[in-house]
Amino acid sequence: MKAIKSIKVCVVAGIVAVLTSSASFASDWTGKYMTEDTKGNAMSITLADDAKATGAKLGHVLSGNWTNDRDAAVIKWDTGWTTKLSKDGDRYKKTAYRVGTSMQEDPTHTGSAEKIE
To answer: Which residues contact 117 (CB under 8 A, 6 or more apart)?
Structure first.
């Protein structure tokens, strides 16, 4: 009985450790970023802890959801566009994909991004 209880405790501890580490990794992406849209206009992107994404450009408000995809934050906007934020050394990179374009195809636009909050 003691062996089974010890195994249960170890399994629970392992699950907690995995969930905590993945949550903290995802929280590395939360915050506000400044970048540009496909036409070079200023654009802000905010990634929240609850996986919601918001953006603003030229007075337009964007909304969507984001996921942690290996070494990037991938945002699926309600418009159908996809934005990927990734680390590029000590900087951030923004890659945009128009509606109907997969991330395996060439991006519609690539630019830099800065985490400001």
So the answer is: 31, 32, 46
